[in-house]
Amino acid sequence: MSQLHRRGFLLGGAALGAGALVAGCTGNSSDKDTAPQVKAPPAASGSSEAPGKPVTIGFSAPAADHGWIGAISINATAQAKQFSDVTLKATEGTNDVNQQIQQVQTLIDAKVDALVILPYDGKALTAVARRAMEAGIPVVNLDRVFANALSYRTWIGGDNYGMGVNAGTYIAARMKQAGKANPVIVEVAGLDNLELTQQRSQGFREALEAAGMKVAARQAADFTAATGQRVAAQVLQANGKIDALWNHDDDQGIGVMAAIKQAGRDNEFLMVGGAGSKKAMDDIKADNTPLKATVLYPPSMASSGIILARMIAQAKSLGDLAELEVPASVTTYSAVVTKENVDRYLPTAFS
């Protein structure tokens, strides 16, 4: 459960502390006083990790044609194996929307106890996810959100806007540290027609603006190494001086780094990546390339999705929260990985 951000107070000591505080505040009150009484919620029904009733969880995701997507499926399978009471029925990854719909329908017909779905296209899979919910099968929606909340019980995914904010905040801090008043900051984005790309760019731009800086040049690629190299070469050619570069995606970043090396500009500026690949983290740790940080978009959300699906199917709750039910949404945090903390995050990296 380390990947879930547990907000709220711990039920044990914190609840006791609250009770003691109430007693202390009302100890000198007369019988006529009507001070509000604080009542702690009932404790959660046992550890969420303790074995429960056997459940079957269906899992569906796109084809593993990208390191991050591949890690999603690997993490989901590995997490399910950690539970003796979970049977995982995983479909073959596909980027064919109609095929994924059919696969999910097959899982519904098999009467699985819960579904974890990363849709290739959230809008297109909304109807079949809704059918699952109507059949009494709770759906955990991974990352690419369905068109309406009637199609899922819980959503867990990344924070694209926050990813941009944290990349911009880190770069701004490094620029101020270096004494650069008007730094030239460029951005190599992902697919521009995707909302997630737009959100990342918005967060990046607004974080820089808050620090009195701006994006000098921006160009979109399409999350592949080949386009990353081509686009980065164009950006480098158009900008004779660069102080910092943010690349949205670490797989795409392989091409960006190749373009930087080919241009002989390895030591000119710092680069920040995105998502959290093992190669990026290895480069950050070695500290011998322009890449000095990457902003996470953790595929460990798939592991957490399996954990949440199991808890929902077994009517369990998050033990460290006061809530009696699993939350309706969980947003992962886009931590900035640097040389100083890379060892902590390496176990979460994807190949």
Write a short abstract of this structure:
The chain folds into two domains: 55-158 and 299-320, Rossmann fold; 160-297 and 338-348, Rossmann fold, CATH 3.40.50.
Radius of gyration: 23 Å
Mean pLDDT rating: 88
Number of helices: 11
Biggest sheet record: 6 strands, parallel
Q: In which order are the strands of the major sheet placed?
A: 2-1-3-4-5-11
- Outline type: elongated
Helix content: 25-40%
Strand content: 15-25%
- Number of distinct beta strands: 12
In the predicted model, the low-confidence regions spanning at least 5 consecutive residues are 1-46
Question: Can you put this structure into words, describing what you see?
Answer:
The protein is α/β, with parallel strands linked by helices. It folds into two domains: about 55-160 and about 300-320, Rossmann fold, CATH 3.40.50; about 160-295 and about 340-350, 3-Layer(aba) Sandwich (Rossmann fold). Helices cover about 40% and strands about 15% of the residues. It contains eleven helices and twelve strands. The strands form two sheets. It has a six-stranded parallel sheet with strand order 2-1-3-4-5-11, sandwiched between helices. Strand 8, helix 8 and strand 9 (about 270-275) form a beta-alpha-beta unit. The longest helix is centred in the middle third of the chain and has 18 residues, at about 160-175. The protein is elongated. Residues about 1-45 have low confidence and may be disordered. It comes from Yinghuangia soli. GO terms for molecular function: carbohydrate binding. Belongs to the bacterial solute-binding protein 2 family. One of its GO terms (cellular component) is cell envelope. It is found in: Cell envelope.
